[in-house]
Amino acid sequence: MLFLYFKRKQVFDPLALVMAATIIDLEPLYYMLIGEALDHQIWHGYALSLTVYPVLISLTVYSVERVFNERLWSTYNSLRLKPTKIRYSMLSIFLSSLIGSFSHILFDMFTHESLPYVIYPLAFGSNPFYIGQFSGIVEVAVVTLASYSLICWVRSNKNEKSLQ
Ligand SMILES: [Zn+2]
Question: How far, in Å, from the CA of 70 to the mean position of ligand 1?
Fold first, then answer.
């Protein structure tokens, strides 16, 4: 979802988008490491991923941006993100976190057969959204969005060069 940042650098926080969309997979990683077969549990559901989770991510991002301001400037610069600012407002951070976590669960929802908590507490057990063999379509969509972000990134670097 990083293309949002390249479209509206003042509004969308790249750190919040990336952190919200990736940290949530520490859950399956953790269960995989301890050998638990059911690796997508309570965090892979809208109940937590749209409430507690983005709040936690937002608080983390908000503090990181304020404590490591200098380091983030140099990191963003070396990643050629062409930052206009590092410290985003709480609203921007929360919005970006929400988009990051929502899109993650949305994509997982169609592609993971075992996602028992997806609409918990409305229902629990099987994942009614799993589309089986058609999940390839969602994977193509994810790859397309990721490529689009990449194109936006390349384009933003090209523009910079042509201005010089
Ligand atoms: Zn996941």
Answer: 31
